[in-house]
Amino acid sequence: MVVKHSYSKMTLREFHHSFSRFLAIFAIIALGVGFLAGLLATTPDMRYSMDQYYRQTNLMNLRIVSTMGLTKQDVEEIRSTEGVEEGMPSYTSDALVTFPSEDTAVARIHSLPACRETGEPLTSETSGYLNQLTLAEGRLPENPGECVIKSEHLFSESIPIGSTIKLSEENQNLEETFQTTEYIVVGYVYSSYYSSIEKETSTIGNGTVGMVMFIPEQDFALDVYTDMFVTLSDAKALDSLSDPSAYDAAVDPVVSTLEDLGQQRAPLRDKEIREEAQEKIDDAQKEFEEQKADAQKQLDDARTELDNGWQELDSAKQKLSDGSLRWRRPAGS
Q1: What are the transmembrane regions (predicted)?
Q2: Cα-flanking dihedrals φ and ψ of residue 116, to 5°?
Q3: Measuring CA to CA, which residue among 57, 67, 64 is closest to residue 79?
Q4: 331 found inside a domain
């Protein structure tokens, strides 16, 4: 008992003499634990924040792209597919653009749909469409020839609101793609569709997308849509970041169904394109035949007129040789 009591006294005495050192060690441990707890909580919090942002902006679950374009019938077929909750057809095209500073860059240009309920241009308060934009400055396009630009790109400082962006003449098939070649910048936006810092690639220019533009869909001159964004009913309540396996399990069956639909629709679209091309060929052939017939008629008429002229000339020569033509001397000569 005496030994134990002495040991306790020595321990307390040692603790009393090194109390500051004990506090320092305790603070270091507490700081480390707090830092670790913060690190462990950061990832779930970031995932939760991104998931909420995606939900608030109604980010699509799938993007459907067709090299042959999507017709209105394709859009209706996709919308009626089981598991698809909402579908928004869209136009997308890459183009070389020129800024007021004379700099040139590759721009990825997306169409902005009109409000489905009213048909009016979108505003910052409009909801219900997919991939909703968050206005950072200015306003959304209200008229043809206006655009908004995704914030935080390389050329932000050289393109203030009110400046004009021109589509470069170096672009191919420019008039077949766009109704307007000059756009007034009316605002800057954030887009949940472009949440990555990695730059998009392109098949034109230097191969890298330098900026992202959004224009009214009526500024596109295309006959068919280039892509379509859809949301899925079974995936809407799932968190793709925190539970990707459950999310994929909900998405994959619909993807498979849409791929089968694509296999069915592709030959029909191919046939439609061929028929349209053949119709243009037939129209051109018909026009050629009509112009050829008209030219042949003009040529035949000219030949007939020329033959008649030769006949008159031969007749005149014959009359001269027969003495039928006489020169009369003027009276009084």
Answers
A1: 21-41
A2: -70, -30
A3: 64
A4: no
Residue 286 CA to residue 292 CA, distance in Å, equals: 10
Statement to judge: residues 121 and 215 lie in one domain: yes
For residue 111, which of 127, 78, 89, 96 has the smallest C-alpha distance? 89
- Give the whole-angstrom CA distance, residue 123 versus residue 189: 12
CA distance 310 to 314: 6
Based on the number of CB atoms within 10 Å of its own CB, is 10 exposed (0-12), middle (13-18) or buried (19 or more)? exposed
Task: Give per-residue burial for 299-322: e unless 16+ CB within 10 Å, then b.
Answer: eeeeeeeeeeeeeeeeeeeeeeee
Q: Which pLDDT tens digit goes with each residue over 291-305?
A: 888 888 888 888 888
Among residues 181, 12, 19, the alpha carbon closest in space to that of 96 is found at 181
Looking at the fold, whether 230 and 189 belong to one and the same domain comes out as no
The domain tally of the chain equals 2
Q: Note the helical H segments in the chain.
A: 2-17, 19-56, 72-79, 174-177, 244-322
**In terms of residue numbers, what domain contains 183?**
93-221
DSSP string for residues in 217-272: GGGB--SSEEEEEEEETTTTTS-TTT-HHHHHHHHHHHHHHHHHHHHHHHHHHHHH
72 and 212 housed in the same domain:
no
Amino acid letter, residue 313: L
3-state secondary structure of 202: coil
Residues in Cβ contact with 135 at an 8 Å cutoff, skipping those fewer than 6 apart: 124, 148, 187, 188, 189
pLDDT digits (tens, 9 = 90+) for 143-152: 899 999 988 7
- Which token pair is 15? 């603790």
Q: Taking the model in full, what pTM does it have?
A: 0.74
CA 237/CA 24 separation, integer angstroms: 47
